[in-house]
Amino acid sequence: MNRPYRYTASPPLVRWASLALAAAPAFLSGTVTAQQEDVQAATSQPSVVFEPRVSVQHTITNNARLDATGDSDQVTEVIPGFQLISNTARVKGFVDYSLHDTYYARESRFNQIRHNLNANAVVEAIEQWAFFDVAAVVASQPISAFGPPVDGYPANPNASQTSSFRLSPYLRGRIGAVVDYEARYSVQDTRTKADSRSDVTTQDWLLHLGSRESGKILGWAVDASNQVADYSLGRSIETTAVRARVNIAMTPQLVVTGIGGTETTNQMSPTRESHSIAGFGATWQPSERSRLSFERESRYFGEAHNASLEHRTGRTVWRYTDVKVISNGLDAQSASLGSLFDLLDGFYAQLEPDAIRRTQLVLAEIERLGLPANVQVFPDFLRSSSTLQRVQQLSLALLGQRSTVTLAVSRSDSRSIGGALQLGDDFDTNSRIRQRGWSLWLAHRLTPNSSIHANWGEQRSVGTFPGLETRVRSLVLGWNVLLARRTSGGIQIRRVRSDGLASPYSESAIVGTITHRF
After folding, report:
1. The model's pTM
2. Which among 139, 152, 373, 469 is most buried, taking Cβ atoms within 10 Å?
């Protein structure tokens, strides 16, 4: 069941974050202009780009509600939106927003307006001293890990619009010639329309002191932090930690790190308990194209780690991440222009150093191939308390002269650490939820103005409750064409099949889309 959205409940700082995003153009110095007609041929580059757009999408489906009833319908969406990219001296970031006005031909009770927002910006308020970060994500998320995947249908009973806004002012400077400091406060407010899932407000304080490590063999850092996560359906969790790090440059390419500290928290019990922190890490960067980093800590919930590997060749990009941390749900800091965009942006960084020109180049290539900017295998599902989560992701992009292959493989393992509280989410009946899946995209440019693409994927969710398992397989075939200089169109054929006791269904659909960029 969905509830009316409660924007008025947001704390003042979160409302300020929303206003800062809405008023971003007022901070941006430079010329606001539409995207260049031909990015590669542009001779001058503005520091700010603003591009409005509008799309019309029509879907004919034999299962509009993605359930066992199989009710067919036709769904029309009018999708106005805009993209703002800034690379000025004082403001660096982006805003990508779209409004989805959805109409059902038969089931008009599902007609709905939804919002989609990804925004992230760093504002330098006082030169080289005072800054603030602003981030926001508004998107549809799955309510349960075992329901139908989120696909944009308002009639999908497993989809709920969720918003997360984050504002973080901070001071950064230098004490003398050898010590850097940072003092930061951040507040993040995450809210969902689903009655059965919790809203959460998180506040963080951080004080950082560290040596200037440029060209030095030995470096150090001390961090003191405090976090309070307040769940609307649960209790407030507070964690205070002090960490010290010592970095040793073994070679110019290899740095090893030792970690020690202490923390107190009421996460595992109603009363605060103290625990020690011990860990180590390493960063190895043999070249500009390759980087490997790893960090492991022993904490109050057990082992935590963060590992990443990235490698680029002449025509490929490889990226692997493995993170095990405490998760509080949707994070505004995850805002991006899409996982495929992030992957290709790393590849084009070696060809185009200018951030705005590179962004236009990547987005133009993604649009020409008819690929989605985000190839996330499965979005995180909603929960009502903190969870211990391990997420492993492998991404690969192979770029040919006319063909592109992208592969995304993901696996997550989420465990409840909230005790025996019944909060109405999936962890009421499952102590552990495992998800894994993959998505393969193939795209081929037929002519300079047209392309075909195909997607094949699978995702699986397994709980500890006996028999609770779902598997969703999908196949998509599509054709895209540039109808005019700023107008594109496309047709997709989609087939989806879901097995399992929780949500068995199948769907076949034809989707047509026309997009015009102003």
Report:
1. 0.82
2. 139
